[in-house]
Design a protein that fits this description.
Elements lengths: L1 H18 L18 H20 L7 H10 L5 E5 L1 E4 L1 H6 L5 H4 L1 E3 L2 E8 L2 E11 L2 E8 L2 H4 L3 H5 L7 E6 L2 E8 L2 E6 L4 E2 L1 H24 L6
Helix pairs in contact: 2-3
């Protein structure tokens, strides 16, 4: 009888361990990203339903890049979703009085929300939604976003806090955070850019843009 009780106890422990849910290791971006608002989640729910309908209609194309995007966006319930603050850069405001101190002043909250989709502690993909004229729309999808921004968690270990901003200048995205009280700037792929260098780059790009506009105005026949 005693032996039977021991065997039952061992069996119970084995079954309990087997059925125990495996810890995914937590989020790679824990403490860095913020939770989505109820409004944003409502928009994402609508997007999920829309792509689920597309998947049901076109299941034969599920192995194409477009099909993979549709599949992932139709199964958003399987991912942990979060976001990072996203900003536009006011080039004209900066150009009026360019200086390192003005970089942060010229960042304007964007109507675009980047959504990170994580599973098993890994960032699988990113997509964005945008608000235009009080209407939310799906903006873009990036499959390899986890590889692009994988440098960030380790880099932020040296920061004053895990708070950071992504901002867009022209067609390129940058990221900034504070270290030792100073704002540091990086390309979205992780390369550090000295503040003075970034200022010069932005001014040079704006000057080139002005020259291009002047050339177009001076030669309208060329661009008919």
């Amino acid at each position: 009888m005693k032996n039977n009780l021991v065997l039952l106890l061992i069996l119970f422990l084995v079954v309990s361990c087997t059925n125990k849910t495996t810890d995914s290791g937590g989020s790679l971006f824990s403490g860095i990203t913020r939770a989505l608002t109820s409004e944003e989640l409502s928009v994402i729910e609508s997007i999920k339903k829309e792509f689920k309908e597309q998947v049901n209609r076109e299941s034969s194309r599920s192995f194409t890049p477009l099909g993979l995007m549709r599949k992932n966006l139709s199964e958003l319930d399987n991912f942990k979703l979060s976001t990072l603050p996203f900003y536009n850069f006011d080039v004209e405001k900066f150009y009026a009085n360019p200086s390192p101190e003005r970089l942060m002043e010229c960042m304007i909250p964007s109507d675009k929300v980047n959504v990170f989709a994580e599973r098993d502690g890994n960032l699988k993909f990113c997509f964005s939604i945008r608000k235009e004229n009080d209407k939310w729309t799906f903006d873009e999808y990036i499959e390899n976003w986890g590889n692009i921004i994988s440098w960030l968690p380790d880099s932020l270990k040296k920061a004053d806090s895990p708070q950071c901003k992504i901002f867009i200048h022209g067609s390129r995205e940058y990221l900034t955070y504070k270290r030792n009280g100073n704002n540091l700037y990086f390309r979205i792929t992780g390369e550090y850019i000295p503040t003075e260098t970034l200022c010069e780059q932005f001014v040079d790009e704006y000057n080139q843009w002005l020259k291009n506009i002047q050339f177009i105005k001076a030669h309208p026949e060329t661009f008919k």
